[in-house]
Design goal:
The chain is 30% helix and 6% strand. It has 13 helices and ten strands. Helix 5 runs antiparallel to helix 11.
Length: 491
């Protein structure tokens, strides 16, 4: 198939009234491509210019900047992406072809990457030996690391994980996060049974989904967007009749009529800030890898963190090295890299690539052109925002959003998204929460995790969150799973 000779964004209509899995928030703006190029007549020239940007300006230098965001959130962001979108071509491990952009996920934060289509339609995800009084399959299937009793994802004879989304076995860190959600569900099932709840599966699933949504909005999103965007995007108010309701404050940015959709400005540009947060290597755990012996993310020799194979103890995550927890100390947790225009050197060694190079950055840039995304400057003007200092031939929306974060003043430089990136990301997640009729925002607007009888926090469990919700963070889900958070919990 010849790439670049058609309007490759035609699968995603520009009308704001379009209702489908993917849509646009800036469909009235013209598509961007480098000045002097023609994606239809001379795609080779376009690709050469984008390769030059990727290889000459987007590779990590000798003194990379760290963010103030613990490294575990890089992979939580990947986990969330896999929950709301299933575009098989978007994986870091596979080729990208924007012509085949389809979303086979529900655009809801409902953990269908964990639960699949439920026990009846995805029976291979569930433990059929563990049934309740009603005979329903209530727990998710868990595997073991060979030669130990340490848990792993359930796997087939080829070592491939049997989970709701194969991409969540892409590397050891996101695999460990997927495992944490499986184990957290099973913990909640046990608690529901102990409380005499008849349908313990549904109770556990609902509690975990709402906790996940709470953590995403109050912990994860709050770390990556500015306070103004976060506070305005989803606002808790009291209606004239005295009811508590959540209202969207950025409906002029992201709006939908009947059901939410995923904006391509979010999925193809703004939310790909996470690619710049990937470190070259990670300290995994003290007992089996040892302090000072980091494991590289991708390595041609195979001694790395790549997934799609059985977990080994030396690649298992010690969570107080990846998240702020009460046992973290010294150089831990490891921090994600800064949100800027640089990608780590490990991402130039993606498996399956014929030759090294900043292939991921190039594909992201090319994908934006093929999807007909507007320039960053045009989107900033549409929202009446200050214009970042970006050359016209670098004005891809993805690059612009990274440059905006890189250009933040003072202590915020590369630590969070800038104003445009914050608005797109906050508006999208707020819209997805409000658009899900089963989210806590709609079903129980006054709900907090403290109100849930299944979500019991230990007295000494005071791991770090952000803002006003200090007691509930991503670390809370890890605690709930029972996975070891420090060196003492490993076999």
């Amino acid at each position: 198939m010849s790439h670049g000779r058609r309007n490759l964004g035609e699968g995603t209509p520009r009308s704001k009234f379009y209702q489908g899995p993917f849509g646009r928030i800036c469909g009235d703006l013209k598509p961007w491509h480098p000045p002097g190029t023609d994606p239809h007549r001379n795609p080779g020239h376009l690709e050469l210019l984008l390769e030059n940007i990727a290889n000459n300006e987007m590779v990590e230098g000798p003194t990379p900047r760290e963010s103030e965001i613990p490294a575990g959130y890089t992979y939580f962001g990947q986990f969330v992406d896999h929950d709301i979108t299933f575009d098989p071509t978007s994986s870091l491990m596979r080729a990208n072809d924007p012509e085949k952009l389809h979303n086979f996920r529900t655009p809801r934060l409902d953990l269908d990457n964990v639960y699949g289509r439920g026990p009846e339609d995805s029976p291979y995800l569930y433990d059929h030996a563990d049934t309740g009084l009603t005979g329903n399959v209530e727990k998710l299937l868990i595997g073991q690391i060979q030669g130990s009793n340490f848990p792993d994802l359930p796997r087939n004879q080829e070592g491939r994980a049997l989970i709701g989304d194969m991409r969540n076995d892409e590397n050891s860190i996101v695999s460990s996060l997927q495992l944490a959600f499986l184990l957290a569900h099973n913990t909640l099932v046990d608690r529901a049974r102990a409380q005499g709840i008849e349908d313990s599966f549904t109770a556990a699933r609902n509690s975990l989904r709402w906790l996940y949504q709470w953590v995403l909005w109050n912990d994860f999103v709050r770390r990556i967007v500015n306070d103004n965007a976060h506070g305005h995007a989803l606002k808790k108010t009291t209606s004239p009749d005295g009811r508590t309701v959540w209202n969207l404050g950025l409906k002029d940015v992201y709006n939908w009529k009947h059901q939410p959709f995923i904006p391509v400005e979010f999925s193809v540009a703004a939310y790909r800030f996470g690619h710049t947060m990937v470190r070259n290597s990670y300290q995994t755990n003290q007992p089996h890898q040892g302090f000072g012996n980091p494991v590289i993310l991708f390595d041609p020799g195979g001694n790395d963190l790549r997934g799609f194979r059985p977990m080994a103890l030396n690649r298992t995550v010690q969570w107080d090295w990846f998240l702020h927890m009460t046992t973290s100390g010294g150089p831990f947790p490891q921090m994600a890299m800064g949100i800027d225009t640089k990608l780590s050197l490990s991402l130039t060694q993606l498996p399956g690539m014929a030759s090294p190079g900043n292939v991921l950055a190039f594909r992201n840039l090319l994908r934006g052109v093929r999807m007909g995304l507007p320039s960053g400057k045009d989107v900033a003007r549409k929202f009446c925002l200050p214009i970042a200092n970006v050359d016209d031939d670098h004005d891809a929306l993805w690059f612009y959003i990274l440059k905006e974060a890189e250009s933040l003043p003072g202590q915020h430089k590369s630590k969070m998204l800038g104003r445009l990136g914050s608005i797109i990301v906050a508006a999208t997640f707020a819209g997805l929460l409000k658009g899900d009729p089963c989210s806590w925002v709609n079903v129980a607007p006054c709900w907090t995790p403290d109100d849930d009888p299944l979500l019991i926090k230990a007295d000494d469990d005071q791991d770090s969150a952000v803002g006003d919700n200090q007691d509930w963070s991503l670390a809370s889900i890890i605690r709930l799973s029972g996975l070891p958070v420090d060196a003492g919990g490993f076999p």
